[in-house]
Amino acid sequence: MISVSGEAIFEAVREVFLSLGVPLDGADWIAECLVDADLSGHPSHGVYRVSEYYRACRAGNVDPRAKPLIVDARSSNTLMIDGAGGFGQIVGRYAADVVSRRAAEHGMAAAAVFNSGHVGRLADHVRFLAERGQIGLMTANDAGANRVVPRPGGRVGRLGTNPFAFAVPRGTAPHLVMDFATSETSYGSLVVGWRRAGEAPNTEGSYDSVLPSFGGYKGFGLSLLVEVLSGVLTTAGWSTGAEKEAAQGFFLLAIDPEHFCGLDYLQSAVEEMLEWVQAPEADVDTQYTAPGLLGSLRRRQSGNVVGIDSTTWKELVEVMGACSVKVPEVVRDGP
Predict the structure, then answer these.
(1) Of 44, 181, 232, 319, which has the fewest CB atoms closer than 10 Å, so is most exposed?
(2) What is the pTM of this model?
């Protein structure tokens, strides 16, 4: 395992995206999302994605200078957004900002987004809403591609891993944030696990290469909802529609509590609720950690050092070389 300073890898990743033509604020945001994923214990959406994004850009599947735009607004708080083939993190931030401003005015606002690059962690975008004192809900699919989740009892991949996320604002960070695949684990987590174990992914299409949904029919039902919201409602594509390997669709909803119970009441009630569910029980050793807290703890415990497996590091060095970016100094090389 290669260990690198968080600041150094952030600078290098940002320079990679700048070299590809991404504007400064966009390159900053992409690098922040990727490095923070590693620091908070989610390497499946960390810097291992840099080479994937680099290849997509070089192949013309992602436009580094794309500007998302609203193409339909049949009401003031419902939007269709064309991601214009841009990097998903930039498209996601644009959509979150738009729905946040409109929710502040109307109480709720939703965006159905198509033609976006890989949006990364949904948590980054719903947390943005929580930081503005709003509740966020988000779903995403792969526009009909990457079908690795079989129906309950099946052996053929029917759907993608179809993630779902929500965030609720607390009085002080970390906010209540949860982001999960509707499969038992994300495919990215499997890939990172294979890389760290020095194994190659199973690409033979056998049962071992598909991911069951969590909770049987319940998880698969939630995955179907994600497919409808992110693939059908957005027109991006669904598992029986056009497959676009480089595209994603996602649905984003913002709810402003000031139009309902009020932000102060919401935050007070949420703290009471969390205190209740986290209260210790007699003869029970396990504790419940509220969503969002574990990532914050991992971030602090990381010492701002990112651990990178040797396969990912080799890819990063190659990409940095191709982009004339200085390779960060290795802090530690070993377990």
Answers:
(1) 232
(2) 0.94
